[in-house]
Amino acid sequence: MKNYFHNLNKKINLNKFEITYDFADRKEVLKNDSLINLYSPNEKNLLVPDVEKVEQYIKYIAGKYDTFKATRDFQTTGLGIARVSGGIYGWMTDVKSSTDELVKALENTKTVTIKPVYRLEGYRRETNDIGNSYIEIDLGRQHMWMYKDGQKVLETPIVSGDPTKGNSTPTGTQKVWAKERDRILKGATWESHVDYWMPFDWTGCGLHDSVWRSTYGGSIYRHNGSHGCVNTPPSIMPTLFSNSFYNMPVVVYDSNTQMVS
User: Fold this and answer.
1) Does residue 221 form part of some domain?
2) Rounded to the nearest 10 degrees, how much is the dihedral formed by the CA atoms of 154, 242, 122, 142?
3) Which residues are catalytic?
4) Are residue 156 and residue 239 in the same domain, yes or no?
5) Which residues form the L,D-TPase catalytic domain (predicted)?
6) Minimal CA–CA distance to 199: which of 219, 178, 220?
7) 102: Cβ–Cβ under 8 A, 6 or more apart, which residues?
């Protein structure tokens, strides 16, 4: 009987607080039944947070809000919408750590706003997690643009990876994950010195200056393209480098094959 009244009082108290997950322009609110359902009786028949139920809830919001390797409809410069899949940019929930955090919040029974714990983070958390500061690369047009706070910083022709030799630059929503100066880039049969190096995926591709080239754009990339990197005019790289930042989205697509409108 004692445990019955304990659980009854517990349920009454559980209706007095709520837990809100903040996703910038969206929220997930746990309250009333949705919150109470995350508790179960323990071996003493007392209501406590149910770790398995909490983990399932965390997996649910991860599936709903995570954007790592997601497919995005991207508004291109001068064209329509490109559908861009994959890449290393985006948000990935740390399920175990987020489960632990929610269990603690359920034990505290206080109204609180929290965020998931992430293994990987993007630049913005809104529905449009790319935001208005990004680098855009169209392999079809062999052209690159940089935008910062919605304003165009630069645009330039480029030379991307050579598809005729199996070296196509990977498409996807990538990110600047490092910025380095005075680097020697090496492959199995080659090496090149660059003044600026900004890797954007995990296969070795990135943005760098290319003093060995005098012309860019057009169809140069076919038969005389790079090993996968985006060769950029040396006069452009200082501006690109200084205006970029860690985790800046790099959207790479091919307007010849990926336009949907």
Assistant:
1) yes
2) 40
3) 208, 229
4) yes
5) 133-253
6) 178
7) 19, 38, 49, 54, 57, 58, 114
CB neighbour list of residue 168: distance below 8 Å, 6 or more residues apart: 139, 160, 161, 162, 228
* CA pseudo-torsion sign 211, 246, 251, 205: positive
Residue 84 in domain:
no
Max Cα–Cα distance, the chain, nearest Å: 86
Q: Among candidates 151, 12, 132, which has minimal Cα distance to 74?
A: 132
CATH of the domain at 243: 2.40.440.10
Domain identity same for 9 and 112? yes
Per residue in 62-77, pLDDT (tens digit) is: 999 999 999 999 999 9
Average pLDDT over residues 6-13: 55
Q: Is 151 helix (H, G, I), strand (E, B) or coil?
A: strand
State residue 180 phi and psi, 5-degree precision: -135, 155
Task: Give the angle 176-180-183 at the CA atoms, nearest 5°.
Answer: 125
| Burial of residue 73, with CB atoms counted within 10 A of its CB: 0-12 exposed, 13-18 middle, 19 or more buried | exposed
Q: Is residue 2 part of a domain?
A: yes
Could you read off the pLDDT of 204-225 as tens digits, one per residue?
999 999 999 999 999 999 999 9
Q: 3-class DSSP state for residue 194?
A: strand
> Cα(96)–Cα(117) distance, rounded to whole angstroms?
9
Say how far apart CA 59 and CA 236 lie, in whole Å.
43
Please give the C-alpha separations between residue 179 and each of 138, 186, 195, in angstroms, as whole numbers: 22, 17, 11
> What is the span of the domain harbouring residue 176?
134-253
Same domain, 13 and 112: yes
Are 188 and 223 members of one domain? yes
Name the residue among 160, 156, 169 with its Cα closest to residue 87: 169
Residue 142 and residue 49 share a domain: no
Residue 26 lies in a domain: yes
DSSP 8-state symbol, 26? -
Total of domains in the chain: 2
